Amino acid sequence: MRHVIGIDLGGTKTAGGIVDGGGNVVFSSSAATPAQSGAAAVLENTAALVRSLQGEALRRSLRVDALGIGSAGVIDSGRGVVVSATDAIRGWAGTALTAELSALTGLPAAALNDVHAHALGESWLGAGAGVPSVLFIGMGTGVGGGYVLDGECIEGASFTAGHVGHFASPFAYEAGEPLACSCGGSGHVEAVASGPAIHALYRRLGGESAADTRGVYRLAADGDPAASEALRRGAAAAGSAIGGLANILDPAVVVVGGGLAFAGPLWWDEMESHTRRELLPPLAALRIVPAQLGTTAAIRGAARRALNLLPAIEGTHV
Ligand SMILES: [Zn+2]
């Protein structure tokens, strides 16, 4: 059976796996991303991880034919280039991701955005398997997503499709003023619904003891008023956004992943009730389910794109 390598390249960690044609992760490994050392260091770090996975494949007598990379940033998957990126990875914008990694590893490569890879993985083998349309929403440090139709993630004309954290939310206002968003805009979903936004709101409401979003959740579970209000508002904003998107896209299933999706029922139930409040009547039975593949989703989604390269590669040898 043919194998490929799938990589999930984030600002903190780079994870990779040897994946077979059925999407099974045969072996996986990860390394810290040297995000502040610049693009060349991040590329070399990724190539080192790929080479170690190639070595492992060799030990197992497996042939690895291609490489797929799901990367932070807006990725032009046609050219394999990072179109734009936040400073989570210094100097990442403009990087010729597939050309550079092919040169460093000797493998043909495909690249796409990491959240798109995550959506693709969940729709291929996870909570969205077996249906023609999947809306994936990732709720964590950031808010992102992807819409997968007939097995392909919709990337958009400029590859920014799925930026579900960056549209107007009625919950992202305080005293009539929009909250600042990480994208440079304001009044967006992410400004109130992300993990850091929930923690920041808790602080603005006078909370002092929780050091992070996890802490806010624990205090909310104990009935702390500031923590409860911050969590409730974040979850309501998430639900309102998800419901509106479901009305627009009419997916067969909504898959919710990211840290907040697994924080517990306080967040999930509030999110789901606000989603359902938003839905048009024909969508009343819409399934809203948690993601299933955890950290392997993006590895598998990236691997899926690498597998797509194989017929073309074989074609060149005919
Ligand atoms: Zn924004």
Automatic annotation (TrEMBL):
This is ROK family protein. It comes from the Bacteria. InterPro entries: ATPase_NBD, ROK. Pfam families: ROK (PF00480). Belongs to the ROK (NagC/XylR) family. SUPFAM superfamilies: Actin-like ATPase domain. It comes from Arthrobacter pullicola.
